[in-house]
Request: fold
Amino acid sequence: MMGFALRNLKVFFRDKAAVFFSLLSTFIIIGLYALFLGDVWTSNYEGVPGIRYLMDSWIIAGLLTATSVTATMGAFGIMVEDRGKKVVKDFVVSPLQRRSMVGGYVLSAVTVGVVMSVVTVVLGEVYIVINGGDWLGASELCQVLGLILLSTLTNSAMVFFVVTFFSSTNAFATASTIIGTVIGFLTGIYLPIGSLPETVQWVVKLFPPSHAAALFRQVMMAEPMAEAFATAPAQTADAFREMMGVQLVFGSTEMPAWGSLLVLLATALLFYGLSVVVLSRKAR
Reply:
């Protein structure tokens, strides 16, 4: 399995176009934020101390969630391409066991997702510091790395389930484009959750990656939040957290951090299980 995963990683990183397009939505979000979204949201909170630091941390936290989705989908493109070119038939008749082959695809996709997310953290932190923010502390950085692993496992499970239905590279490319486009809306990056209609808010809050985004924001925005709302009433800070998706609220109930963690773990188990069922039926 490890050898097959290594083969997939070499194939992925050798294809510069695949690497680029797996991060395309990330580049789009950064471009939109740098060009006008950043100014729009900071102008809404003029006079708040360290608002640029706060909003930069908000956008980078959201980017980490989007990257773990699009990067793993790009990595799973190798599986679709192998099917389309009938390469997978060569693997089936080889000594490589089927479960090792599937595990290799999953392991390589998770690895790509983690690597790309770590790169996003590094570049994001540089961007934040250049604009006057501070580096993440050692404790916060460890928490972010742990969340990267968990969110990548969860998002790769969802993507894996979707990919099991594709055998055409053209159809997969179309699906990748659609997912890369809507992921920014479904995780509350293009528009904060609080600015959406109530029905849409519920959809976003029920979308598992939104829980990953909320957890990233709670860690990365803790320091800038404390700085920005140091002298403000607690209700103001709470309203901001709910508006920007830092804290997911269902009715009058706040989702605790451990609740979001359970949602991510349950989602990973559910979709990996569903993927195994689909693949088992196709193997018959």
